[in-house]
Amino acid sequence: MSDPIPVQGQHSYVNISNPLTLIGLFVEILRERFKATTPSSPALLWNWESDLKSTPIFIESGFNLHMEARNARPGIWIDQDQTVFLRPVLGDRDQIPENLPQNIKQYYALVETDMTVDCTSADRGESLMLGSVVHCFLQMSARVIMQWFGLRDISPIIMGKTIPFEKDVALMSTPIQFRVGYEARWATIPILPILQGIDLRLSDKTDPETYFREISLQR
Amino acid sequence: MRPLITKITPWHPAKVRIQWDLEEVGEYGTFRFNVERSGSPGGPWTTVVASLADIYTYDDLLNDGESANTLSLVRDIYYRIKATPPSGVQNAVYSPIINLDGLSESALSEEEAGNPERPIPVAQFEPNPQTGQATYPTSADRRRRLIKRSLLRNAYLMLRRLNGIEFVLLKRRHFGARCSCYEPISRVVLQSKCAICYGTSWVGGYFNPISVLGRVVRGASSDIQSGLSQQSKDDLNLVQIQTLDFPKIDEGDLLVARDQNRRFVVKQRFNTSLKSITVHQTLTASELSRVDPAFSIAIDL
Questions:
Q1: Domain locations in chain B as residue ranges
Q2: Is the residue at A183 inside a domain?
Q3: What percent of chain B has pLDDT over 70?
Q4: pTM of this structure
């Protein structure tokens, strides 16, 4: 098992195991699925193209501020919902290395992120069909995606009811929801000297601000 | 010879009764009539019945496979009569077009009513003011009819000379042949960017374009609101457009501002009336996104 890494072309600031990594990953996966060159039987009604002026379908990340096309539909919008760290894994030190000379301790934990994919269209039928394609594709490819992109788990994919939103004109949306689990690793470095430095600064009575703060804190 | 639909009575939802008459008849013999129907005064027209010999009433049962219906409050059907005199089809004449409300096709003139120096031409707004024949069967009262003529003429002149701009009206189809992207069992459209029906489910999507004059009452191009939605940034431009009373413009119809190629979908209509006389209609319309399939509808700009 490895960590999810940013897909090719993502910004260098998008770190390993970052929620943006996951969004980018599923945006790319779904774009690839809807490309004309990806075999489909029967052929899909929509083939994604990178040109916003001509693409029959938009596949983008959600709350998209910087896409130039407006009121775009039909579309597939990938976003993340809540992310939670489960308890850090403790126990066998063989599995959690510790650098004794530098007192650096390493940990890992499972992280779970809820993903949402909104399939939108001006028509209910199209929204539902898009949702169905995405739903089936993700469900049936989950094991392969997990293996290839270093994900720990992909929960069962849930497709919700198609509901309308009143915007400039009516917009139908079919939500797809699932949870992605992956591993996060980190290390703690010794921070006692840093804490001592903070205490020294606070106890410096030559600084009036510090003096009054001390009174207010009743130290 | 001038055929004229004198009365139209919709018996919702089963049938529409059309009654007509002939004026200024100059021939003797058997006259034949075709009843034609469309969802727009601009056509295309479907012949509902042909060669009715000396019959002046017809009940359109709306059951000819075209699925025409009056089931929605915002559905409108237009009729016209093609009258063929005994002398033959080369002399056939069409009646003015009329809708379910009894509103008739009319071309407004700039001539001044009641002034013999500037008469209203025959076949324009008032086909024959001398005989008092009502163009509008539902408003047979001569006084009301004249008030309406005056109000409409003033509104027309204001649009024509002062503040009107030219729109192309595309009446949305609500009957005809279903598109291949329509799923008939669950009655849904599977492709909103369909190049055949433009997401309407009906082949062609819209009836033939009609030119109408209108003015933007509220919401010019500077009133666009841009906001972030759950998907992307959306532009919202709700405008109010005022047009004359005919043709009736309903929810779902498209208006295209001819000079700028800005396209609007009508969301709501309300009429401005004076003493129950409809003077003009005010439409609330939403400007369409530049990636909307309606922009692929070919229009002569």
A1: 2-105, 159-296
A2: yes
A3: 84
A4: 0.80
